[in-house]
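Follow-up to my post from last week.
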Amino acid sequence: MASILTIPESINIMSKTIGPAIKERDPKPIQKMAIEQEEAGGDIQDLNLGPARKAGDEMMAWLVKTVEEVSDLPLALDTTNTVAIEAGLKASKTPERCIINSISAQPQSLEERMPLVKKYDCNFVALTLSEEGIPRDVNERGMCAAEIYAKALEFDLPSEKMFIDPIVLPVCVDPGQVASFLEFLPLIPDFAPGAKSTCGLSNISNGTPTELRHFLNRAYQAMHIYLGIYSSIVDAYDSEMMALCKGKIPQVEELTKTLMEGGDVDPNSLGVELQVYYRSIKCLKGEVLYSHSWIEDLVDKYDPNWYK
Amino acid sequence: MAFSALTEKYSGKMGTLTFGSGDQAITVGGQAAMPFCTFDGEIPNKPIVAMEVYDVVDPEWPAAVVDPFKDVINDPIAWAKKNIDEYGAKAICLQLASTDPNGENKSADYAAELVSKMIEAISVPLVVWGSGNVEKDAEVLSKICEVNEGKNLLIGPAVEENYKKIAAACLGYGHNVVSQSPIDVNMAKQMNILISNLGLPMDKIIMEPSTGALGYGVEYSYSVMERISLAALAQNDEKMQCPITNDLGKECWKAREVKLTEEEEPAFGPDLEKRGVLWEAITGFDMLLAGSNLLIMRNPKAVKLVEECIDELLA
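User reply:
Got it. Predicted complex:
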């Protein structure tokens, strides 16, 4: 069954435990989390410092060393501060395995960060964002990707170093954007041959009830997996999500395939858990209008161990 | 081979809602096609305009919406009668502005009694609209429901924060409810689900998606309403299959374009009345094109213009 690369997201400065630990340079909570994420099946450790405007370089260098002490996984250096990214690359034992986040089709981003990729021979996230903002449709996503791809060629970088992120937007903001993302994923080889793909999955459920977000996240992930996504930033503490990413829930893959290929099934013939996937996929495909109550009658009956 | 025009066939159709009682009851909704597209499907009920009556008038109102009612403006019942007898109103919307705690803060009992008197006095269906204050509306509107049991009024707006009390009163005392959402199609559906979970059937609910006047977000309302209509028709989404209303009079008549004189804004030209009438009529007609079934409007000339368009397009 299909398996994708997972990038656990929890080492994040916004986190209530990790944020203070980074500021106080306390390695313990961070190392504990790194070990847990690796044990949960994570493939790349995301180190998210956000904007990191103040002393971002020292913070990133420290964080990289701290995590590498306990985990051999490659790192994703996730900050908008370019100086901090370079500090992280310098600090890493294996900068060539790192992914830097992110290079957009905005000229400043291309000019500042492409040389870093060249210098450290690392990987990078190519964010389909241009001077005009978030692309409105699949064509504009393609144009952004092609522009970054062309710049990478200029620097003589192999396209395998490029992880294209077509930008996930929330289902309750614009279902058109959800559809456009799905339409774009299988076109990546056309716009950027050899490039990989990734995304910040959980943004799909931004604005939906907190306790229900993972149901939408998983269903969207199943759709991405069907469409051949290469990697995804995920919550490693969601064990059903991790099982899904590692190809261990064939029932979901089968249902997703049927629905994605235009088929349908009688939802009443499905168990509660697959019905949740069914309804979520219908909303995410734009066939049914999303509302906060989309699975209200099923949630209480959901068995968290159903797939085991 | 003869030419045959391509038509759009929908799997769903909009539900209906009937308010008012006896011979005077009005049914809205029920369309199986997008607005005015009678070639695609049946549109059994014409959209209706309910004419506004206020129980207290803001002194800031432009002359264009004071002059037509000058003689009755302090008497909502006489005003309603004038709207019906002189201006041909098919329905009345009583706006209970005086109950606003930030204004006169009149009581629920006062409002319930005014509604009773109004029902006695007029011959057309009645919409009752609260001041928009979430807590006060819950109190006032549920009292009105109770005191006027069985009159099949249309009562609103019920919003996420107060729908339980208002919708429960509508259910308990035999009225219909306006389900209002903040220009958000997902929330519009959610509100309908929440209200119908209380036991109120879909044919007792009408949606108000929050209305923006021309120049003040009309396009957002338009887009949400179009999506509501398509969900109801093309996706056969039963929780979206209730008619739509737009409370637009109060939005239009506070726009700066209907208030500024030529001296203040020369580009706007001299005819303040015409400007205001067109502002309201165009907003109203936009809402019809987006799928509205019931417009709440203020100026008699604007109402007439919109009704002429409806009659011509659905002749």
